[in-house]
Amino acid sequence: MLLDFLYDTFPGRVLLKTLTKPAISKACGAFLETRFSKVLIPPFVYANAIDLSECFASDFKCFNDCFARRMRPGKRVFDMNPSAFCAPCDGLLTVYEITPDLEISVKHSRYDLVRLLHSRKLADRYAGGYCLVFRLCVDNYHRYSYIDKGSKGANHFIPGKLHTVQPIALERVPVFTENSREFTVMNTENFGKIVQMEVGAMLVGKIHNHHGRHTFLRGQEKGFFKYGGSTIIVLVEKGRVVLDDKILKASAGVVETPVRLGEKIGNGWSLFRR
Fold first, then answer.
1. What is the pLDDT of residues 108-125, one digit of tens each?
2. Domain containing 12: what range?
3. Is pTM beyond 0.90 here?
4. Is 230 among the catalytic positions?
5. pLDDT at 89 over 70
6. Annotated catalytic residue: which of 180, 230, 244, 251?
7. Residue 90 catalytic?
8. Is the same domain home to 35 and 138?
């Protein structure tokens, strides 16, 4: 298997140093924007059992058009109840309670919030809150949305290497602290200040966020990933949300929970104070 070769052998690790450079990812992303990449679409759709009837179009101009395809209305329904805390994307969800000495472990890859955000002040704000990690697989819908009405600050880009987010890589390198990533702080109407971070992966052409400083609506599209499975991380302040107990129990057992964009995964804490 290619990933075993790249991560478990000396020549593979030498090649990996080249493949994980952003310039290589950029070059691959550029190819996937061309008409020549259309030949990759049929095997990709077949291998991942993607139902193109769910999409607005199936006559794609390039591979990335297929990968970042838009769903038809009704295929991803966002819960519009203001108290509903919803998933911003498709993915496999793991939740962590943020403690002062927390190191988030994902298949033996460990990182803390200070290293993740490059800011101790911002990391300290979320002590006692939750860190939600949504791992997107290649067959997931790769567009993501705002979880509530509110406003956001500037996007902060942190450059880095671009490792795959497959389990084999997570076992060997601190993927989320090495990968390129972009985050913003959002002032939401019902859940306080939320950090949302998009994390790049190997051969991702681009993390594309639509807005800089911006006011937004619940369920409005925030952005999308081009080719490659990737990850979205959401930080929630202490006392702002009550998450679904089944998700918390699964996470405690190191089991990821499949979720879809717009799906309710908890409630705002204010609902329980009424």
1. 456 789 888 989 999 999
2. 2-67
3. no
4. yes
5. yes
6. 230
7. yes
8. no
